[in-house]
What does this fold into?
Amino acid sequence: MKLIQVIRDIWKVEELRRRILYTLGLILVYRIGSYIALPGIDVQQLRAVLQGQGGLPGLIDMFAGGAFARASIFALGIMPYITASIIVQLLGVSFPYFQRLQQEGQSGRRKLNQITRYLTVIVTLVQASGYVTYLNFMAGEAIVVSKGLFWLTTTLLLTAGTVFVMWLGEKITDRGIGNGVSLLITIGILADLPFAFAAEVTTRFGQTGGLVFLIIEIAALILVTMAVVALTLAVRRIPIQYARRMVGGRMVQVQGARQYIPFKVNAAGVMPIIFAQALMFIPSMISQFFPESEWAISLSQAFGDYTSFWYNLVLFILIVLFTYFYTAVIYNPIQMADDMKRNGAFIPGVKPGRKTAEYIDNIISRVTLPGAIFLGIVAILPAFAASFGINDQFAQFFGGTTLLIIVSVMLDTLQQIESYLLMRHYEGFMRTGRLAARRPIGVTI
It folds into this structure.
């Protein structure tokens, strides 16, 4: 009953209703576009070759909502934009120019967004050429026009398609609800869920397990989802106090003004899993160049199967390492300590300056360790699910990139909806205040 009442309250808020309908409309446009095939290719013949591809193509196809295997005009989806965003973010660590832009507030973010858009076009042109090469290699007989004409038209259409998807994502962020780019990825992933679940139901009732095993699977999926939600929302709060604050254009003494710096247990999000999975495809790709070699066959067997012991062990170690690396990119203890000192803030019991930077660095290291271990466990859960007889397609929703993206994006969207409801004095989704929109967790400096 409470959920029905919340839905009614959402519909009563005109601005929120308009934003949700706007978001749903653009998502519908994206899904329709993912079924529009590129010209000059036999779609039926192509589908027979590309459907069910694993490895890196399978990962890209998952993010693109199946458009990659369908050779759609949105085949590359939003992945080039994500790649460009990661490059710009990493440049902010190495180059002073990008560091200055990150510190210039709104104007700096506008410049970085513009650079990201231009870089997206360049990345898309490169990836589009690679996609044409992949189609020629995997299903060259499905291309019914000359190779030169197909390369030109496909490269241009894929670039235009990615730019259009990027525009859709930005419009959803500006005038819709939630983060547009993340929502488009999530919708693409969720599009496969009904088919995966239907296949699992058919397997259970047609072959083994029956209803009891299916109920156990659903219960396990719910428990794993709850654990991922807890990981996503978990924070370690460091209390800070202000000796002086800027009030009315001048610095004044502030008594008892205490706030918190929140450090997320999983600050790196899903990026360590994406980086680690991308590296795990390299051994299988290398083995393809030496098909007759025994070591290549062993390498392919060890790392070509996501359920194998060595695959999951190496994946777990890489995720832990990448979690520390990406967390170091996000948090800069020295800069945070300098900003606190400049704003008259301090951590109780810790000297400002170098001691504060060391204290923050120690906290980040301790918080990141359990987060990295738990993230690695979540990443290898699909392998355990598959080992219990769950079909490969449905097993992907038991952890890994799939579940983390779905949970984080859904939480972010629900928090925005919750904020709109609370601002208009409506009851939100939860009375206990678990969502961040209901309970402020501090101020990031």
Q: What stands out?
A: The chain has two domains: 18-191, 193-445. The chain has a mean pLDDT of 80.
